[in-house]
Amino acid sequence: MQIEKKDIRALSKDQLRDFFVANNDKAFRGNQVYEWLWSKGAHSFEDMTNVAKTTRSMLEDNFVINHIKVDTMQRSSDGTVKNAVRLHDGLVVESVLIPTETRTTACVSSQVGCSLDCNFCATARLKRMRNLEAGEIYDQVIAIDKESRLYHNHPLSNIVFMGMGEPLMNYNNVIKAIDMITSPEGLGMSPKRIMVSTSGIPKMIKKMADDDVKFKLAVSLHSAIDEVRARIMPFSKNFPLADLREALEYWYRKTKNKISYEYVVWKGINDDKASIDALVKFCKYVPCKVNLIEYNPIDDGEFQQASEESILAYIKALENIGVVCKVRRSRGKDIDAACGQLANKEGSVD
Fold first, then answer.
1. Between 332 and which of 16, 60, 76, 144 could a Cys-Cys bridge form, CB atoms 3.0 to 4.6 Å apart?
2. pLDDT the model gives residue 340
3. Rounded CA separation 330/308 (Å)
4. pLDDT for res 34
5. How far apart are CA 263 and CA 252, in angstroms?
6. Which NCBIfam families match (predicted)?
7. Of these residues, 94, 133, 147, 262, which one is catalytic?
8. Which pLDDT value is given to residue 79?
9. Catalytic residue among 283, 288, 325, 339
10. Which phi and psi (to 5°) does residue 171 adopt?
11. Ranges of the chain with pLDDT below 50
C-alpha cells in the first residue's frame, strides 16, 4: 500500500533540519529548503537549484509540495480580480484582489466552503469540505501579490481574511499562514496590515488575545439584538451577544486594539430605530469603528438592501457618539467577487 506523502511545508525549519541530520546530511540543508519553500515559493523540488540532485530525489521520495493553481482569473470593470484557486485534491476556493488608488488588498479564503450558516451569504450555502492548510492560504497571498505587481505596479499592501470560511474555525493554520506572511523569511508584511474577520466566536477571540496576536480584528455583527442576529446568522444562538461583548472587552484589555464591526443593513430586518439604538449601545462597550457594507444579493428575495435613508440614520446615530462610520461600496459585483458572493460557481472538482 502506497503511503501518502506529507506536504513538506507542514514542517518547521527545525523539523527540516532534524530530517536532514537523521538522513546523514548537514542541518543547514533544512535552512536552504525552508528558504526555497517560503521566500522563493518553489513549486517543485527540481526548482531548488542550489540543492544537490541526490538531496532533491530524497525529498521527492518523502514529501510533496501541495501548491495551489489559479484555475481561472476574472477581471472586473472596476479593476477587481477574482481567482478560482484549485487545490491539490481538486477542490476550489476563491480569492480576490481589490485595488484602490492608494493600495491593493487581498481577500483570502480559509476554508473550502464554510463552517457557519449565515443566511445572507452564498459561501455559507456550501458545506464545509475541509480547512485550508497554512501553505494554501499563503499561496493565495503570493498569487495576489504577483497580480498586484503586474496590474498595479506595486506589491500587495493589505490582507483581509474575509473570503470563504470562518478563519477562527481554522485557527492554527490561519495563524501559521499569518506568521509566514509577516516573517522576514516569508513576505515580511506588517501584521498591522492584516485583518482577520470573524462572525463572532467568543472563546477563539479570547484565545487570540491570549496569544498576543498583532493583526487587526473585525467582527461581522449585522445586529446587536440577539433575536435579529439569530435570524440572520442562526449559529449565533450558541454565542449570545453578552458572551461576544465579554470576549471583545477582553480582547481590548489585552491588545488595546480597536474592533471593526462589519454591518449590513437590510430592508425590514435591521433598518429600524430599535436596531440602530442597539448598535449604538453595543459600540459603547469597546473602542471601535463601523463599516456599513453594501449588500450583494444572492439570487433570492429574502434579503434586500436597505434604503439610503436608513443608512444615513445609522451614520448620524454613530457619529453622534463619536464612532467612525464608513460606508463600504462593494467591488467586483459583476464577477461575483463582492462580499458574500464567493460560491465556486465554476464547480469544485474535475
1. 76
2. 45
3. 15
4. 96
5. 20
6. rRNA_mod_RlmN (TIGR00048)
7. 94
8. 85
9. 339
10. -60, -50
11. 1, 335, 337-350
Look over the chain and give the mean of its residue pLDDT values, rounded to a whole number. 89
| Grid cell in block for residue 172 | 492554527
130: β partners: 112
At 343 the pLDDT is: 47
Backbone dihedral region for residue 268 (phi beyond 0: left; psi -120 to 50: alpha; all else: beta): left
- Which residue from 211, 284, 210, 216 is spatially nearest to 245, judged by alpha carbons? 284
Please state the residue numbers annotated as binding site. Answer: 114, 118, 121, 165-166, 197, 220-222, 296
For residue 281, report the phi and psi dihedrals to the nearest 5 degrees: -65, -45
Per-residue pLDDT, 299: 59
Angle between helices 241-255 and 202-210 (to 10 degrees): 10
pLDDT of residue 10: 93
Question: Which pLDDT score, from 0 to 100, does residue 166 have?
Answer: 93
The set of residues, in sequence order, having a beta carbon less than 8 Å from that of 44 and lying 6+ positions away, is 65
Annotated binding site for S-adenosyl-L-methionine: 165-166, 197, 220-222, 296
User: With contact defined as beta carbons under 8 Å apart, do 294 and 329 qualify?
Assistant: yes
Known binding positions for [4Fe-4S] cluster: 114, 118, 121
Burial of 139 (0-12, 13-18, 19+ CB in 10 A): buried
Residue 289, beta-bridge partner list = 260, 324
C-alpha cell at 235: 449559529
The letter for the amino acid at 350 is D
Q: In the annotation, is 94 catalytic? A: yes
Closest CA to 174 of 240, 164, 151, 184: 164
Q: Which residues contact 213 (CB under 8 A, 6 or more apart)?
A: 175, 178, 191, 255
User: Does 339 participate in catalysis according to the annotation?
Assistant: yes
The three-class DSSP label of residue 34 is helix
Rounded-to-integer distance, Cα 39 and Cα 313, Å = 48
Copy the grid coordinates of residue 272. 429600524
Residue of 174, 150, 164 lying closest to 81 (CA atoms):
150
Q: What is the pTM of this model?
A: 0.89
Task: Residue 128: name the closest of 110, 109, 114 by CA.
Answer: 114
Query: Within the chain, where are the H helices?
Result: 13-22, 28-38, 53-62, 134-152, 171-182, 202-210, 226-232, 241-255, 273-283, 308-320
